[in-house]
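Might you be able to check the backbone structure tokens below? Thank you kindly.
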Amino acid sequence: MLKQLLLSLMLLCVSATAAASVFDVQLDAAPYSREKAREQAVNILLSRLGGSAAAGSWVAQEILNDWSRYTLSTSTAGGYTVQFAEAELSPLFHSAGLSLWRGKRPAILVWQVNDGQAKDMPDTSWRKASRYYAIPLLWPLWDLQEHMQIDKTSLQNLAEASQRYGAEVWLAVQQQEHRLNWRLYHKDAEQPLTQGAAASAEQVLADVNNYWVARQAAMAETRPDNSAPAQALQAGADAPGELTIVVTGLTQFADMVRLEQRLSDLDGVAGVSVLDSAGDQARFRLELESAAVRPVLSRAGLSALGERRYRLERTE
């Protein structure tokens, strides 16, 4: 009876963790500056969604440069919490050629033995890693039956014991000094899904996260490049101090993002906004520092096709 009660309580906690969106990032201790807090939140998001391949991607800078576009809400109550916009991030990841794991994370049952001693509770490193990657973890009770049935020297044949906890996925972790040898299993496979060695719990979950990201990539459908729209966009009228242009040749979402950045860097341009897009075309509105300014658009990789109409020639 006691075991069933404890199991129910653990599963309830895991369910609550699993219900949290991977697009919601919380820093328990907010950094002193807003910029640092945003950077940390974006780094966590990229690690969750795209794994190690997303580290160092230009996507991070794009999110930081257009914060309001890629976030839904921000709160500083009890730390620093950001709700990112899934609808905006999905095409951004795709345009950068990054895999995206946005689905619900499976709860993982962790069977860990440290130098022959069974471990029935997570330490700080496991809790931190679980929050960082939004992967809920469940720990076995290691009751008398489990101590008798499970070979702690090998941690093999854990399927029956894991299913008593309702686990579909489990980790077998053997720690010797500061080295964690781990194997990830699924109830429908006899052999490990993946395995490795790590120096920390955070690295274990980073590797597990990379596996799931790669698996999602293998299952993802290839999206075609943007094609010419049925009806071409028109530049429309400009107010004083504005320049609206139509650009064609934007075959990927990344082309539009990078062009917006390049236009913003041109001399005489105070700001840039994307008004709308259709197929491989988009309308950009440039706010000029003065009405007399005419920015050199060729420096952004554009060639003229007509009055306020351009083609993107390069995106390097």
The domain at 242-312 is CATH 3.30.1070 (Cell Cycle; Chain A). The mean pLDDT is 86. The CA atoms of residues 36 and 199 lie 27 Å apart. DSSP finds ten helices and 14 strands in the chain.
